[in-house]
Design brief:
The complex is a heterodimer of chains A (111) and B (265). With 111 residues, chain A is of the alpha/beta class. Chain A is built from four helices and five strands, in the order E-E-H-E-H-E-H-E-H. Chain A is globular, with a radius of gyration of 12 Å. Chain B is α/β, with parallel strands linked by helices. Helix content of chain B is 42%, strand content 12%. The chains are: A alpha/beta (111), B alpha/beta (265).
């Protein structure tokens, strides 16, 4: 898994994640969330369009990122989730909390 | 052991189920030089939006105000129990049934029919077990039989059935304390499975019974709730284990999950 961080204006950042978001990579993403929020970007958009697989531990890293962002007064939005990602979000009911946006542009609108 | 001595993964729907039901077997595997892995399936970190009235009531009953506080203490307890047994642990990220929206909003729902949409969780869990770093050829998997019918136990059993259908050796364990306080539930569950499991097999645990009881006691927030029917948890565990073991002394009970193709719970 790889993460590319793109800081936006006024405390917002897009994290473009690619590869598998699973037990082996979840910790890396958690650490990335911590670093980004510590750097002052607490409104996060996670672009999942290049993520080909997410398991439950990968989902856990997104929940962790959400909590980290909220503790700093921000939030976390998902964009570009693939069919596999949408399925696991719906099955676990996490889609009720992390409502998936179609694109990063849509997620950034009004953020 | 019910299976051959070798790598083993015990699936625990919640943080205490394997220790409550199979702690003696886990400790015996450790003593035999094959420390197993204990995997908690529904152990994920939960966003507060998923904590509804029912979950809040559960939290108060356990003495906690938030899902984060519950998770922290449950993981601490699990780590202590695993250390007592000498095994390794992993916590997957699925949410406990009490946090899955309006699907299960009362105790009656938790011990009822699995909501249809949740069948989709079964292959996800099975695949996640197969992709664990600890997975090795010849691994034996242990799942709850789902005596008592808790939905998370049903899902975990169904994941075990799916693994068995893929040629993996799977055993279902006797869910304690359900089997202790409601022994009639065993026959009911077996009847409902229509031959999906084979004849019961026993594992002698007299030498590791004390370790199982000590590990159960590590779940300090749960013991008063789940052993509400007795003030003597160690006595209840030992009496049940020796009753089913008979001439073997204390024992734990398992059923082989058969290689059938259906994946229903």
């Amino acid at each position: 898994m790889q993460v590319k961080v793109e800081p936006q204006s006024s405390g917002t950042a897009v994290l473009r994640v690619s590869g598998r978001l699973d037990l082996l990579s979840a910790m890396t993403l958690r650490q990335e969330f911590t670093k980004v929020v510590a750097a002052g970007q607490h409104r996060l958009v996670v672009d999942l369009s290049a993520v080909d697989f997410i398991d439950s531990t990968g989902l856990g890293s997104l929940v962790s990122g959400l909590k980290t962002a909220r503790m700093a007064g921000g939030d976390l939005r998902l964009a570009g989730a693939t069919a596999q990602a949408l399925t696991i979000l719906q099955l676990t009911t996490l889609d009720r909390v992390l409502k998936p946006y179609k694109t990063t542009e849509e997620a950034l609108t009004g953020y | 052991m019910p299976g051959e001595l070798g790598p083993a993964i015990f699936l625990s729907p919640h943080y205490d189920d394997v220790v409550l039901s199979c702690g003696g077997t886990v400790a015996a595997l450790v003593a035999a030089g094959c420390p197993p892995l204990m995997v908690t399936i529904f152990g994920g970190e939960t966003p507060e939006e998923l904590v509804g009235d029912f979950a809040r009531w559960k939290h108060r009953r356990w003495g906690y105000e938030s899902a984060d506080a519950v998770l922290a203490v449950r993981r601490d307890e699990d780590a202590v129990a695993a250390a007592i047994l000498g095994c390794r642990t992993r916590w997957l990220g699925y949410f406990d049934a009490i946090y899955r929206g309006e699907r299960y909003a009362a105790d009656g729902d938790l011990f009822g029919r699995l909501k249809g949409v949740e069948a989709g969780l079964i292959p996800l869990i099975a695949d996640e077990i197969l992709s664990l770093p600890e997975w090795a050829a010849g691994t034996t998997v242990y799942v709850p039989l789902a005596i008592g019918g808790h939905v998370d136990h049903q899902i975990t059993f169904a994941a075990g059935r799916l693994l068995a259908a893929r040629g993996i050796t799977v055993f279902a364990y006797e869910d304690c304390p359900y089997a202790i306080h409601s022994p009639g539930g065993i026959a009911l569950r077996l009847a409902s499975l229509h031959g999906q499991v084979g004849p019961e097999t026993l594992v002698a645990i007299e030498k590791t019974l004390d370790r199982r009881i000590a590990a159960i006691a590590a779940y300090t927030t749960q013991v008063p709730v789940i052993f509400h029917f007795t003030a003597d948890m160690p006595g209840a565990i030992a009496t049940h284990a020796r009753r089913i073991g008979g001439a073997l002394g204390a024992a734990e009970r398992y059923w082989p999950v058969l290689e059938t193709r259906s994946t229903g719970a």
